[in-house]
Amino acid sequence: MKSSLLLDGLEAEAPTVLTAPAARVRIADDMAMLRAAAELTRDISAARPAIYWGDMLGSAVLGYGALYAAIVLVPVGWAILAAVASVLALYRAGSFIHELTHMKHSSVPGFRIGWNLLMGIPMLVPSFLYEGVHTLHHARTRYGTTDDPEYLPLALMKPYSLPLFVVVSLLAPIVLLVRFAVLTPLGVVFPKLRERIVAQYSGLAINPAFRRRAPEGEARTLWHWFEAGASIWAITLLTLVATGVVPLRGFLIFLGVASGVAVLNQVRTLVAHLWENDGETMTVTAQYLDTVNVPPPTLLPALWAPVGLRYHALHHLLPSLPYHALGEAHRRIAAAVTEDSPYHKASYAGLPGLVRSLMANTMRGVA
């Protein structure tokens, strides 16, 4: 999931920006890099349904199986290990929501419905929360501006903004339960409230100023079906807990795992960009350099940035390239461009260094 699990509009206002940055030199597009990215990946641009289905189904089965083990196991140590395994596996399965926003659905038939039935509705993150929102982040004139639903200038904000950005994601499961068990039914009764729910509480966004438009056509129909499914599931789950059919312990473990998924995604979001843009429009190359690749040989990004998210900068060059082709695309492009190409400048060693750099940037305006 590219954006955080925070629902847009829950924060009263965006964290305060420290100071306006000094004027930056506008980065021109590097046409050699852009041509190489397009030309070297044409033969690997097709989605492979067997990989999508196998990866998503395997991750979901492992995640739910580990969640069940965490609930029923008595030894605390084993239960914790099972919960961690569940967080990692469900996070991977859930990350396919990002692929859903970019793929041609005819290329992997039934995948959108299958993912929503298996992951989106049970975890209360149906794909309509991301579809129609995430693509705005890739719009040429929106990226990094106030119209970008998935961008905040975190590197220019006060230091407390970073831990707050992560900690608030702990509440995501509670927020989603309220969204679907309470707000959805109320929106059916009160049309004005429904308008606000659609605009402010129906997008996985981190920009609190973002307001989404009401869907139309097929998107509207799918939205209503998936929202109804999530609402019925949320109400049913709360009813089963209230009546004792679902033990409170099991429910709390489920919430804990869901919070773990949200926090892990939020940390990944924190280092997905450098977050240094102050609202100006940027060239494609500038957008690329503000985004992060964490390629091999490091191994841990496969856990905290799964389903191709470790190649996030490359994804901004080639948004429609399927996740399973990004590794090969990176190898081809890195070998073809010159040593001084901007392409190499978006690659980083790992999570700790990215976090330290971001924290250092926020501290510059404190002194």
TrEMBL record:
Domain Fatty acid desaturase, residue spans: 78-344
GO biological process, one term: lipid biosynthetic process
Transmembrane region(s): 66-91, 111-130, 162-190, 222-242
GO cellular component: membrane
Record GO terms (molecular function): oxidoreductase activity, acting on paired donors, with oxidation of a pair of donors resulting in the reduction of molecular oxygen to two molecules of water
Keywords: Membrane, Transmembrane, Transmembrane helix
Statement: the UniProt record of this protein carries the keyword Membrane: yes
Entry-linked InterPro entries: FA_desaturase_dom (IPR005804), Fatty_acid_desaturase (IPR012171)
Protein name: Fatty acid desaturase
Record organism: Sphingomonas paeninsulae
Lineage, opening ranks: Bacteria, Pseudomonadati, Pseudomonadota, Alphaproteobacteria, Sphingomonadales
